[in-house]
Amino acid sequence: MHFIRRDFDPAELLECLVSTAHHGISFIDRDLNLVMINETALKLLELPADILDDDPRLENVFRYNAERGDYGPGDPEVLVKERLDLAGLFLPHDFVRTRPDGRILRIQGTPVQSGGIITTYTDVTTEHEQEKALREARDRLEDTLDERSRELGANRDLLLSSINAIKDGFAVTDAEGRVVLANNKMFEIYPQLPAFLARKAHVSEVINSIFPDEPVRNLDEFSDRQSMWTERQFPDGRWYRITRTRTDDGGMLAVYSDISSYKEQHAVLQSHTDELVRHLRKEKELNEMQREFVSMASHEFRTPLAIIDSNAQRILRKADKLKPEALVQRLGNIRDSVERMQYLIERFLNFSQSESVGMEINRDSISLRHLTLAVCERQKGIARDYKFVVDVDNLPEFMDLDRKLIEQGISNLLSNAVKYSPEQSTITVIGSEMDGKAVISVRDEGVGVPQEEISKIFNRYFRASTSSGIAGTGIGLNLTKMIVQKHGGNIHVESEVGKGTIVTISLPVVSRQAKVAQARAS
Questions:
Q1: What does the pLDDT look like over 2-38, one tens digit per residue?
Q2: DSSP state, 202?
C-alpha cells in the first residue's frame, strides 16, 4: 500500500530489503566510497559494524584488511594502493576467495550506469566441499575402474601369453560348440581358424575345412569319435595326438600335440642321428677354432713379422757398418718378436680349447708408462710416414698387469690407427690416471666408423663399411676388448666418418708394489 500511494521512504525500504537478503551486498559510488553494506556482508568479510561510521571511504576497508593480514605479506600502504587502483576501474568481476577462517566466498561485482559498482558476497563453502567430495568420489571411482581395466587387460594378456607359450595347439569352445579361444600353434594347424574365431564359428566348420570328406556335425559327435581323433595325420603330413576335455559349462578344451617325429623315426635311427649331430657339432667347433686361429695369425702376427723384417733388412743393409751393440739390439728386437708370436699362439690355443676358463691373466708389477712408450717407439719404426704425438707421463708408475697381453692390446690400437689413416697424418697417444684408473687414448685422423656401426665394432670378424679396400680380419679390437675386460677394465670408441677415431681403454690401478711402498713409508 505504501508503494501504491507513493508515500514510502526509499532509503528505509532499501535498507529493509538489503538487511533481509541472504547474500552480502555492498555499493561503492564513483568516488570509491562504500555507501552501503549489509550485515551479511559484514559478517562474511569479518568487518566491524562501525567501520563506516566516521569515514565511508573504501580505502579504510582495504587498510583494515591489509593490517590484519588478509592480503598476505607486504607493505600495507602498497597493498591498499594496488587494490584502490583496481577498484577505480569499476570492472565487472566474479571470483572465489578463501577467507582466513577457511570459509570460501564468491564475490561478484556489477558496474552501474550512474557510476560505482554493486558487489554481492555468497558463502559457497558448503557447495565447494560438496564439489570436492564429488570430485574425490569420482576420482576414486575412475581409479577403481582403471585398476579393474588394467587387471582385466593384464589377465587377458597373461592368458594369451600363456596359451601362446604352449608348444601344442590349444583351443576352447563354448557349450554351443563355437570356438572362442585358440593359440598361435592352433592357427598353424588350421590356417582358416582366425577367420572362424572372429565370427565364433562352430567347431564343425573348423574341422570340415581340413577334412571335408569326413564331416562333423556337432560337438557331441566330435567328442565321441575317439578312435578317429585320438591320433590323426593332417594333410600337411604331420601327426597330432588330440586330447579333449569337457568343461563344467558344457564346452570343450582341445589340445593338439605334434607326434610326427615319434611316427617317423625309429629309436635306433634316433640314436644314430644324435651321434651324428654330436660329431658334426664337434667338427664345427674344430673348424671354427681353426678359422679363428688363421684369422688371429694373419692379423696379430703382422706387427711382430714387420718388426722382424725391418730389423733383418737393416742388418743386411748395414752388416759391415753396424756396431756390435747395434747388432745386439737388432737381434734382440727379432728375438722379442719371435717370443711374442710364440706367446700369442700358446695363449690363443689355450683360450680356444677352454671356453669355460677363457683367457688366463699372469699379472706382474710393471710400468705401464714405459710399456706404452716402448710400443709407440716400435710402431714409429714400422710406420715412418706417420707423425706420433705421445704423452704418457701421467700414467701410474706401477701396476699389476699381464705385460704381454697389455702390450698386444696397445699394439693392436696403434696398428689399427696407422692402418686406417692416410700417410703423413698424426697418431696421438695420451695416458693419464683418473679416479683410480689408468686411461690410454689413441686418436687417429683416419676413415672413421659410421655411428650406427660403432656398437658392432668389437664383434669378432666385424669390419666397418668404411674399411673397404683395407686389409684386415676384424679380430684385433675383439681380442683387445677381451684383454682389457680380463684385467677388469673397459674400452670405448668415439668416431666420425672422414675425421678419425678415438679408442680409449681404462684399467683399474692394482699395484702390490705401490701398496708395499706405502706400507713401508707409513
A1: 444 455 445 454 555 555 567 889 899 898 988 888 8
A2: B
CA distance linking residue 308 with residue 329, whole number of Å:
12
The DSSP call for residue 509 is -
Amino acid identity, residue 257?
A: S
How far apart, in whole angstroms, are the C-alpha atoms of residue 131 and residue 126?
9
Q: 29 Cβ partners below 8 Å, 6+ apart?
A: 35, 115, 116
pTM: 0.39
Backbone angles phi, psi at 252, to 5 degrees: -150, 140
The 8-class DSSP code of residue 396 comes to -
* DSSP-assigned beta bridge partners for residue 179: 173
| CA separation for the pair 155, 152 (Å, rounded) | 5
pLDDT digits (tens, 9 = 90+) for 238-292: 888 888 888 888 888 888 988 888 777 755 677 778 888 888 887 786 666 566 6
Handedness of CA 287, 293, 297, 299 (dihedral sign): positive
Helices (H), 394-446: 403-419
Cα–Cα distance between 230 and 479 in angstroms, integer? 57
